[in-house]
Amino acid sequence: MKIYTRTGDAGETGLFGGGRVPKDDFRVEAYGQVDELNAILGSVAAASEVTGGSPMLDRLRQIQEDLFAIGAYLATPSAETGRGAAKQLPALPIDRITEMERWIDEAEKQLPALRAFVLPGGTENASRLHVARTVCRRAERRVLTLHRHSPLDSGILVYLNRLSDLLFMLARLANQEGGREDILWVGRR
Fold this sequence. Notes:
By secondary structure, this protein is mainly α. It has one domain (about 15-185): Cobalamin adenosyltransferase-like (Hypothetical Protein Ta1238, Chain: A, Up-down Bundle). It is built from 7 helices and 4 strands, in the order E-E-H-H-H-H-H-E-H-H-E. It has helices spanning about 25-50, 55-75, 80, 85-90, 95-110, 125-150, 155-175; strands at about 10-15, 20, 120, 185. It has a two-stranded antiparallel ribbon with strand order 1-2. Strands 3-4 form a two-stranded antiparallel sheet.
């Protein structure tokens, strides 16, 4: 399979299950944002490997797998999910939502209670996780836009919402593991 096909040179791309749309279509924008989030999480995971690993590494890899599955759904027109394309789609990782909530609860027990807003930053990994969190929120907004035009399984929106919460907690944990305190916003001085 060649990397370049020249079929997108005019600004269109093919969808899973058939059909072509402009590269700035709501659907392409949604799965593109999920792909960007996945790439950032790959960067966080790579940095975790370099620093000797972390308990969060396995979780990040699971989330990356989940995001690939979500991307496949987003790249499939709703009309196609009822046809042959549905048989080729991976299972949506909706059951991971409960697991992410458990991970958030575990992290909360290890961290000091929040008494102020947290500014993004701290350790390298915490900073990357904060970037991932903001990209996750943007992906969530793009998926919501797509959902309004072409209804999706609402579990995808719940997954992304919970994931951004988890990424916030993982950023706080990364700071704690790195011996850094969260940077708190103090407002006007």
